[in-house]
Write a structure and sequence with these properties.
By secondary structure, the chain is of the alpha/beta class. It has three domains: 2-43 and 270-390, 4-hydroxy-3-methylbut-2-enyl diphosphate reductase, catalytic domain (Cobalt-precorrin-4 Transmethylase, domain 1), CATH 3.40.1010; 44-134, Rossmann fold (3-Layer(aba) Sandwich), CATH 3.40.50; 136-263, 4-hydroxy-3-methylbut-2-enyl diphosphate reductase, catalytic domain (Cobalt-precorrin-4 Transmethylase, domain 1), CATH 3.40.1010. The protein contains 15 helices and 15 strands. Helix 9 packs parallel to helix 12. The longest helix has 18 residues, at 236-253. It is globular.
């Protein structure tokens, strides 16, 4: 593992980022001040998942190795994994994909986890499983399995199509008798609350949430006792509001009694750290914020949501999105597509903030910093060894 970790570090570390971070997260070069959030980039769970994937390639040298979906939501990292000869397998494998697996194959489970039925099929084939599921995700699973045992329906705050939420929902079934309902946001939460208060029918719930609840789910029966869980990378403040609104609705329905409601804080620590660090960074009057990470990364998306409420924010995949001082490609959170914008880069003295999701490696952040400085026409030191005079805590 020491050799593996050294190889991973060689691929993804950045001396530039480490030097700036070590000096308080501030680098002043010419007219450009770069401010890094205090917490950003790879978390422990992501590092562990990548380490295990690299280790699997070294240990199972002569075997076919497959990865269920993506190891994490970052295209650059997933590209590196593929370059090692690790083969793709759909997060929800088709019958043809299952049929092609053999007992001698190795299957890597990503950091998000996988659905119970998928893992059962793979185990029945006899494949060796390398499970990189994040510990924070497994903590949520523990809670929803407890709900199932005690006939409490899990209301999962998350994205119903996200791998982690699908895995958590499968765990919420317990031995098959548990139930779940997934709510994406406060609007959907309010619709559930309206049902709990008797304002809308169960038919409306079943119609509006089609595809986001368990087989055999009956709102009349299965929303009597509820417990709120969440996808670990959701916005903490929103999850807290979801649980408060549902608690109030249960209390209204049950005459002030909340015995039929439960809630566990299951937002992961790394997600919370990065959100808190961004709120702290935004106390400075920035001219621009760049959020770096995969467009399908939930925790990165929420950082961009926080940023755009306070300052001009661009959610970019990597430095290649910074096409010129006049053009930037970035992800539009509302249209859910990559778009191009002009006149994005400030002129004159500027404070530019940078943060990144838990699935973004430091080398991509370094490339972003250097590209910003290049486009701003700054004289960039040849190496981080010459950065000391430009960095201020």
């Amino acid at each position: 593992m020491a050799r593996v970790q050294a190889e991973v570090e060689n691929h993804y570390r950045s001396e530039w980022v480490e030097r700036i971070r070590g000096a308080g997260g501030r680098a002043v070069i010419g007219n450009t001040t770069i401010l890094l959030a205090k917490a950003f980039g790879f978390c422990y769970g992501v590092e562990r998942a990548i380490d295990l994937a690299y280790a699997a390639r070294k240990v199972f040298v002569d075997k076919r190795i497959f990865l269920l979906g993506e190891i994490i939501h970052n295209p650059d990292v997933n590209g590196q994994i593929a370059a090692m000869g690790i083969l793709p397998l759909s997060a929800r494998p088709s019958e043809a994909e299952f049929a092609a697996l053999m007992a001698d194959d190795v299957v890597i489970v990503p950091a998000f986890g996988s659905e119970v039925t998928t893992l059962s099929r793979i185990k029945m084939i006899g494949c060796q499983i390398v499970d990189t599921t994040c510990g924070d995700v497994m903590s949520v699973w523990k809670r929803v399995r407890q709900n199932a045992r005690e006939e409490v329906t899990s209301i999962i705050h998350g994205k119903s199509g996200h791998e982690e939420t699908r895995a958590t929902a499968s765990q919420a079934r317990g031995a098959g008798g548990g139930h779940f309902l997934v709510v994406l946001d406060l609007h959907e939460t309010d619709r559930v609350c309206e049902f709990l208060r008797g304002k809308i029918s169960k038919e409306i719930i079943l119609s509006e949430f089609k595809g986001a609840y368990s087989a055999g789910f009956d709102p009349d029966l299965h929303l009597r006792r509820i417990g709120v869980a969440n996808q670990t990378t959701m916005l903490r403040s929103e999850t807290e509001e979801v649980q408060q609104r549902l608690r109030d609705a249960v209390s209204n329905r049950d005459g002030g009694d909340v015995a039929n409601f439960r809630f566990f804080d299951t937002i992961c620590g790394a997600t919370q750290e990065r959100q808190d660090a961004l709120f702290d960074l935004l106390r400075t009057r920035l001219d621009l914020l760049l959020v770096v990470g995969g467009y399908n990364s939930s925790n990165t998306t929420h950082l961009a949501e926080i940023g755009e409420k306070a300052v001009d924010t661009y959610f970019i995949r990597n430095a290649e999105c910074l096409e010129s001082e006049h053009a930037i490609r970035h992800y539009d959170l509302h249209e859910k597509v990559e778009v191009q914008s002009a006149k994005w880069l400030p002129v004159g003295p500027a404070l530019i903030g940078i943060t990144a999701g838990a699935s973004c490696p430091n080398n991509l952040i370094e490339e972003t910093i250097l590209r910003v400085l290049e486009l701003r026409g700054e004289s960039v030191p040849a190496s981080p060894d010459h950065l000391a005079s430009a960095v201020r805590g």
